[in-house]
Amino acid sequence: MNKAAAIVIAVMVIAALFSSCRRDDSRYEDENNFIAEPIGRREVRIIEYLDFTGRFSLNIPPRIGNRTVTEIGEKAFADFWFFELAVPNTVVRINDWAFSGNYIQRLRLSRNLTEIGNGAFMDNRLLNVVIPDSVRRIGYRAFFWNPLESITIGANVEFGELSGENEYEGAWRFTPFEGTGFEEFYIEHGRRAGTYTFNNGYWSVVFR
Question: In the CATH hierarchy, which top-level class contains the domain 29-207?
Fold first, then answer.
């Protein structure tokens, strides 16, 4: 191999390495489509989404401006048209009703998520949900009105509940997966990590 050819190959290798190391921002939603409020000095909470063009897929950016997105605010993405959603790994908390009233069928949650708020994914189209092992608490009605067939979940997750009684409804109780019976099955089986499957009216589980 002559010297000129060696130089060309070296340049191509360096360019390829540089390209692979760059952050690919093109796959994220334009950060100008969000309103965010600061949390401390370096983090933000997304509080509103501004794109009403009817897009079906949403890939939330991990940064807005020079700040890290760590929270999704209350009702920030409620009542849009999303079928597919990706939440970046920077997010640690999804607040109440954040993604309620969409059409979400495919969901990728942050692997660093610790809390899912009340009604956060209520009234969507989720058949399967994978909840990261980092999640410690799921609020009431978080996954209510979803046709769930399987739930992958970590161990010892706390479920938020709301209950009461009045003259019109009698006794009532709101739970994260309300109407499915999942909570009771999970608790009865020691809150163990695994994939829980609902079929023919019954839950089964494969533990991890």
Answer: alpha beta
